[in-house]
């Protein structure tokens, strides 16, 4: 009931409110959809970035483990290269330690470098050079002896026959690569550190038959060192698992000796040698990298909440921006729609006034849009209607008033010309010929200024300048002279009225020096491409640099300040009519004179406007 009433009161008969409602709904839906798509795209990009950072760290772990496996193989390979060393290692593997000591004593005096051929010294040196090696073990398949080497020259040899130990069974298993340390071997070596992984390499005799196993226990803390450069660039946990799912390394240190909690997810991932795209469990993002050659799996697990924390700020920002956009989408259109509605209501009110007989009413709507055009058309219609009424009822009175104004316009100038001519003739009759000439020049100058011409040319402007200068030539007699030079072909060019005379007047008022006999003003007009250039040169007082800077600053102002009216008037009119390329330029040196350059468009008089 309430919504229906609101619709009838505000929307049913109001076109503008219906437009506003439809536009608002469309704008809000568009903004919400775009915001969702933007957030989805940005969040997915951040998730991919975080997972890629973790992949890079996992690949670094894989490279490190492969390098460690290669280094263990290199140790075994070095044993083969040193024939005497390998002979002693083989003797140690197949005889009790007491016999090995006797064997070493027998050959002691025949060797030149005992340290390089003694297995104990050799393996101690290897452990010194590789700080992450915790144990080196040699197992003899034939004699079932297990030799255990520890740092600081600790060594023991164990007899591991099948009747008393599971170690022969463990060593007989055909596997190599990187694995978790076996419980029975740990027990025999008394090595219970949880953060260990094992690398096992078979040892062959000279006949290339398997003689036993070379086993190395390494501290997985070295993997942490390999991740040092990545610790600030990835989130979550990185773990290394053996082929049977045992934890070889855990960056969080929580799962040593335990079952890895995401085995159900990792088992479902593609078990290949390449990095797969991240799979998503219910709570975690999982990455998996499998090394088929060395038998281990690198797992990366990132909690969703940690990744979501990375783009929570983006979510807030997008929500804030979306809210602001929705407000703008509502209030700005509302402002314009309400404005249009008010303007429409004003038009309706004025039409009702006219309907009631008020023909003086006008719509005040200066806009250039459709409503503005309707308003101006309506006002023009009323103007035409009033004009028609005037033509019908006031034609005769208006005609008489027009004739009277025209008569006054003709009489007043003629009265002034006739009066000046009477004064001139009287001056000549009394012998004042120079006064007569001045009056004549003034009369002709006044006629040229008052006379309205449709086309005003360079010839007209130069003639006005000549008449003005002639007045002062007569006044100052032999102290002042002038020259006007212009190509006759340029006389018909169109120029702006009173564009040179105010500049000449500036010289007469400010530049002429009455104490000199060589005052001179030169006016030259030339053609430069699509420009007409007039140059006015004098040898007057000149302008100081400070005052010249003020003049330039005044000419550059967008509005007149009341100073330098004549110079500013010419410059601003030229730029207003023809553009910034045209105008007045002034240059002066104190005691030398002033040069004023005026630039016009090069136009024929027939195309000129009456300015």
UniProtKB/TrEMBL annotation:
InterPro entries for this protein: Bact_2-comp_sensor_kinase, HAMP_dom, HATPase_C_sf, HATPase_dom, His_kinase_dom, Sig_transdc_His_kin_internal
Residues annotated as domain HAMP: 338-390
EC number: 2.7.13.3
TM segment ranges: 20-39, 318-341
Keywords assigned: ATP-binding, Cell membrane, Kinase, Membrane, Nucleotide-binding, Phosphoprotein, Transferase, Transmembrane, Transmembrane helix, Two-component regulatory system
Subcellular location: Cell membrane
Record-annotated Histidine kinase domain positions: 500-604
Chief localization: membrane
Membrane protein topology class: Multi-pass membrane protein
Recorded catalytic activity of this chain's protein: ATP + protein L-histidine = ADP + protein N-phospho-L-histidine
A UniProt-annotated Pfam family: His_kinase
KW Disulfide bond (keyword) present: no
Domain of life according to the entry: Bacteria
GO molecular function: kinase activity
Protein name: histidine kinase
Organism encoding this protein: Paenibacillus cineris
């Amino acid at each position: 009931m309430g919504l229906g009433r609101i619709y009838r009161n505000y929307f049913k008969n109001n076109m503008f409110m219906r437009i506003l409602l439809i536009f608002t709904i469309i704008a809000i839906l568009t903004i919400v959809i775009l915001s969702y798509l933007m957030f989805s795209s940005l969040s997915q990009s951040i998730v991919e970035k975080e997972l890629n950072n973790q992949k890079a760290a996992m690949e670094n772990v894989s490279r490190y483990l492969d390098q460690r496996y290669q280094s263990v193989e290199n140790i075994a390979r070095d044993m083969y290269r040193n024939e005497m060393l390998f002979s002693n290692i083989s003797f140690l593997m197949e005889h009790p330690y007491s016999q090995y000591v006797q064997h070493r004593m027998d050959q002691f005096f025949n060797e030149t470098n005992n340290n390089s051929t003694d297995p104990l010294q050799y393996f101690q040196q290897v452990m010194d050079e590789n700080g992450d090696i915790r144990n080196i073990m040699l197992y003899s398949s034939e004699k079932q002896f297990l030799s255990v080497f520890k740092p600081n020259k600790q060594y023991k040899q164990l007899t591991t026959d099948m009747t008393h130990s599971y170690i022969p069974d463990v060593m007989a298993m055909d596997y190599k690569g990187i694995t978790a340390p076996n419980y029975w071997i740990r027990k025999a070596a008394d090595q219970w550190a949880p953060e260990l992984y094992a690398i096992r390499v078979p040892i062959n005799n000279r006949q290339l038959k398997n003689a036993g196993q070379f086993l190395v226990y390494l501290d997985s803390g070295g993997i942490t060192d390999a991740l040092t450069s990545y610790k600030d660039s990835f989130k979550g946990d990185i773990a290394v698992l053996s082929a049977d799912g045992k934890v070889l390394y855990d960056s969080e240190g929580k799962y040593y000796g335990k079952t890895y909690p995401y085995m159900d997810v990792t088992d479902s991932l593609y078990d290949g040698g390449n990095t797969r795209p991240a799979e998503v469990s219910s709570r975690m993002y999982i990455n998996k990298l499998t090394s088929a050659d060395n038998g281990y799996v690198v797992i990366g697990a990132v909690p969703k909440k940690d990744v979501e924390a990375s783009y929570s700020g983006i979510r807030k920002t997008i929500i804030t921006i979306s809210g602001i956009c929705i407000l703008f989408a509502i209030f700005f259109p509302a402002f314009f729609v309400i404005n249009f509605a008010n303007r429409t209501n004003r038009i309706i009110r004025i039409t009702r006034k006219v309907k009631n007989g008020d023909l003086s009413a006008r719509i005040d709507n200066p806009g250039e849009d459709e409503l503005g055009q309707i308003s101006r058309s309506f006002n023009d219609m009323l103007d035409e209607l009033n004009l028609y009424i005037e033509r019908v009822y006031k034609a005769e009175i208006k005609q008489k008033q027009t004739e009277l104004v025209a008569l006054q316009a003709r009489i007043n100038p003629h009265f002034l010309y006739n009066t000046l001519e009477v004064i001139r003739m009287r001056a000549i009759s009394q012998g004042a010929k120079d006064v007569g000439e001045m009056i004549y020049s003034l009369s002709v100058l006044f006629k040229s200024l008052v006379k309205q011409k449709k086309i005003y040319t360079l010839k007209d402007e130069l003639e006005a300048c000549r008449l003005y200068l002639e007045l002062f030539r007569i006044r100052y007699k032999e102290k002042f002279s002038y020259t006007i030079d212009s190509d006759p072909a340029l006389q018909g060019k169109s120029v702006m009225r009173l564009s040179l005379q105010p500049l000449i007047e500036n010289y007469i008022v400010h530049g002429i020096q009455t104490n000199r006999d060589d005052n001179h003003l030169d006016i030259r007009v030339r053609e430069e491409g699509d420009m007409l250039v007039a140059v006015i040169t004098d040898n007057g007082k000149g302008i100081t640099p400070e005052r010249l800077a003020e003049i330039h600053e005044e000419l550059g102002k967008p509005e007149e300040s009341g100073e330098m009216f004549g110079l500013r008037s010419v410059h601003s009119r030229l730029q207003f009519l023809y553009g910034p390329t045209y105008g007045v330029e002034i240059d002066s040196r104190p005691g030398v004179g002033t040069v004023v350059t005026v630039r016009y468009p090069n136009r024929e008089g027939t195309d000129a406007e009456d300015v």
